[in-house]
Input
Amino acid sequence: MFRKKTNKKEVVDYILENYTSFYRLAYSYARNKDDSLDIVQDSILKAISALNKLEGIEHVRTWFYRIVVNTSLDLLRKQKRLKAINDEDLAQLTRVNADNSHLDLERLLDDLPANYRVIVVLRYFEDLKIEDIALILNENVSTVKTRLYTALKKLRIEMQD
Output
């Protein structure tokens, strides 16, 4: 029982230390602040309730990223059923004039399909290894590499235009 308390504290400390990384990942799916915060909060609750499934503290990084990904996908599925406004109308309502390259890159990332965008975010914003990304997304390493290559190629083409 003593070990579980240690694990809980270590997991909570890890989550708090890396909160912004988890928020960025959630944001790459949800694309809005409130939903992203909800995703991270729900992920923390799920992690604490499933703490006994964590095989060891050395796996906490990929384990919690996977929880955030699954929670994000759950939210997207739920929203898809509740969608009252189509994406084009929403994009017109929220379109920002992107005068600098940071906003351009953000817009280009938003235009990528979710399965490509999340790999780019995990690799370049969260600095995860390809193998860790494959574990988090429950995909083959070769699939992750292919999607990353394809996403970067699409981004390069769009940036040149």
In short: The two ends are 59 Å apart (CA to CA).
